[in-house]
Amino acid sequence: MDFFRRIYSFDYMGHKRWWFTISAIIIGAGLISLFAKGGGNPVKGLTYGLEFKEGTRIAVVFTKPATLSDVRGVVAAQGYPDAVIQQASGGAGKEGFQIQTGTLTPAQQTALQTALDKRFSIEPQSGWNLSLVGATFGHQVVSSSIKAVVIALLLILVYVTFRFQWKFAVGAIAAEIHDLLVVVGIYSITGREVTTATIAAVLTILGYSLYDTVIVFDRIRENQPKLNRIPYGDMVNVSIWETLTRSINTTMITLLPVVCLLLFGGATLKDFAFALLVGILSGAYSSIFVASPITTILKEREPQYRKLKLAARPDQS
Amino acid sequence: MAALVAVSLYFIIPPGVKTHLGLDLQGGLEIVYTAKTANGAAPSPAQLDQTVNILDRRVNGLGVTESAIQKQGTDQISVALPGIKNTQQALNTIGKTAQLEFYYDDPQHRPVGPVATKQAALAELKRQGAAPAEIAQLATTGTSANYSLVEAKPGVFGNNTSAWFVYKRPPAMTGDAISRATAGFNSTTGKPNVLIDFTSQGSQRFQDITRRLYRTGLLKGQPQTFAIVLDNVMSSDPQIDYTDPGLRDGISGGAEISGGNMTIQESKDLALVLNIGALPVRLAVAEQRSVSATLGKDSLHQGLIAGMIGLGIVLVYMLLYYRFLGLVADLALIVYGILLWGLFNAIPVTLTLPGIAGMILTIGVAADANVVIFERIKEEVRHGKTVRSAVNSGYARGFKTILDANILTMLTAAVLFVFATAQPKGFALTLILGVLVSMLTAVLFTRAMLGVLAGFAFFSKPAFMGVRTSQIETAAVDEGRAAASRKRRTTSTAAAEGDAAAVAAAAGVVTAPAQGAGATPGRRTSTSRKKKKKRR
Q: Are B80 and B134 in the same domain?
């Protein structure tokens, strides 16, 4: 319980360097992983899903017994010796496989389906699930996502500047970029597949991770005129303590359903949930440990606040 | 409010029937096509519109209900076919350009062929001096400004081998001349075929072609042929028998496409696309996703179970943490759920898997709104306000915070909606609607409930606010306040012990509610602070 008391009276702004170090370590680890796994090219340091590659992915369920090498043989005989084939769950008494090949034309799809059906009997109800991505699609997803991120950040910058002040906006954007880097880094470290679902979740995090930041900023804005005799950092500390319960509860309440999604959802939902989980945690952290300190640093450069700071700490000029 | 809930319930009941499910949840086929003109350029908006129109008619011809065909960006079209069984048939029929062309087979019109491979055909054309750019174009799209690369499948031209040709454009005649195509059977072979009737203009043109072939045949003493080519594949190569005087004036009636070994289904599908007409563009599959009905049902169940459990946990959490206020929040959350579901059915929004994820996330967002308001109210109560005025000012201030936070969430969701491709779009839309409905619930429901409750005597006890239950947290602040007041009495003690932050806390908490009295303690606090910093 002592810990819980301490967090409501801790000098958050006095330990900026600690928080920046922690963030730097996490982001640094992510960047190292990105560069190491990508062989010097950070873009290649992530495992991309089918959406970003050219090719066809088929989830197939057979009713007749089939081994990996049997399936590989049939697929190779159809002219795809390079196909990546993995065993997957197929349900009771059935064999499930995932087959990945280059882009197949409709005619090629039919031929492959017929050949596999003849040999292993494809389960008629749900045995054939195919997704195909052409060469240009991945590029489109990436370029439209980057566009979306940049525009979203600009809009946030404008809105926060409009509602608060540009110094707050800089803090908020720093927190956003922090969250993005953390999520990307964690995806690289864990080697999780990046899908369009991941990208959607990451973009959502951009909006949602500001929730806690706005709660703290709102309180800072409110306290600013009232607590104008103590250093700015102390005032921010007070604002954080006052809003801490709120931040913890909103984070918990959003995390709970997301964790349920991660535990009970299907594959696509799990993708969303994992990115959201990392992003929400990072967003909660960054509102207190990134956005607030950066705004404080900027604000403490203003003459009135510098005077207050110097008055409180005359030894630090 | 009650009316809104009633309307929503009307749209929900009976559950499951009125909700539009996306392809990923009910199974079906989704294709995204990239459109290019025959010589590889980007399509014009008019061409894209025309393509959507033709695709729509083709899909209807296949008997698929509830299909959705949409433009996506400037050169893409997405086709969603829910619940379709025969995906291969659909794929083969929908995306077909269906450009029917008639070519003369003489050397002047057919510079290359028959040769055995595509490479050989292109090499021969190169030898004849065609521009390299045109050859490269032919290799990728099969059609260039002056030439068409045509393949004849085994059984059409040769017996058991394919043959390749290059024809000179423009063709002698195109599919525009068709008035009607009918699937039928060849009278001699009994194989499925498609019979073409021409328009009056087309009929004349066809008669000209066949008459000319008859005469050339008569002159050379050798039967002449012409090629019927469908999407760069030769479907037949009929002969005009110059020994038959009946053909002296050419053929005026119609033509037959036999195309090797068509199945009955294929002949019907071909007749369908020929009747509707050729696409003004060529379509390449950019993305294709087929989901079986069972897989969709499984995903739906998993999503619903995850959502229900998530909702349940949030309800319990709110109740445990905020006690009576938690009950208000829980009711608000249930109302929120009903409104959102009703809205989804009423618009109707197609529910997809990413949409479910968005919905589950908004459960959190909706509950957050209540947390922010309640914490604010508790704070006001702690500052000594009566419950009634705390509810009013707490709600007003809390809502302002929520508004800022939610607008930011919606801004990014809107960006996502505008820029993202199909799948994340559903997620963004759900998020936007969810945030809007959650604000509506906060304004209409939570506020009204609190207003009504504030009128009851039992409600005015701070304990109902859950203020007592959160003593662990308030204790820290209270303690800080207490310690600070202690320190204010003896400034030297403050300098000697305690956390610097606690002093600042005291300053904050004490000065905030009591502005008038704040001046003196405030200054003293900063004095104590100054001394303490020296210690560091």
A: no
Residue numbers of the domain that contains B49: 2-96+287-291
Q: What is the pTM of this model?
A: 0.69
CB within 8 Å of chain A, chain B residues 377-406: 379, 397, 400-401, 404-405
Domain of A67, CATH number, reads 3.30.70.3220
Residue A170 above 90 pLDDT?
A: yes
Is A113 in contact with B88 (Cβ distance < 8 A)?
yes
Using an 8 Å CB-CB cutoff, list chain B residues near A264: 302, 305-306, 309
Using the Cβ of B410 and the Cβ atoms of chain A, whether some distance falls under 8 Å is answered with yes
Q: Where are the beta strands (DSSP E) in B61-115?
A: 68-72, 76-82, 100-104, 112-115
Considering only the beta carbons, identify the residue of B310, B427, B533 that sits closest to A312: B533
Last residue of one domain, picked from the residues A105, A133, A161 = A133
- For residue A234, the chain B residues in CB contact (below 8 A) are 501, 504, 507-508, 529
- Phi/psi of residue A100, each to 5°? -120, 125
- CA-nearest of B300, B275, B266, B306 to B100 is B275
Please tell me whether residue A128 adopts helix, strand or coil conformation: strand
**Domain co-membership, A165 together with A301:** yes
Residues A103, A178: one domain?
no
- For residue range A50-78, what is the model confidence (pLDDT) as tens digits? 667 777 888 888 888 888 888 888 888 88
When divided into structural domains, chain B yields a total of 4
Kindly give the interhelix angle for A16-37 and A292-299, rounded to the nearest 10 degrees: 120
- Claim to verify: residue A172 and residue A65 sit in the same structural domain: no
Which residues form the domain of A213? 2-47+136-312
- pLDDT tens, position by position, A17-54: 888 999 999 999 999 988 888 887 777 778 877 667 77
Record: contact A4-B419, CB cut-off 8 A: no
Number of domains in chain A: 2
For residue B18, how far is the Cα from the chain centroid? 20
Q: Does B511 touch chain A (CB under 8 A)?
A: yes
ipTM strictly over 0.90?
Answer: no
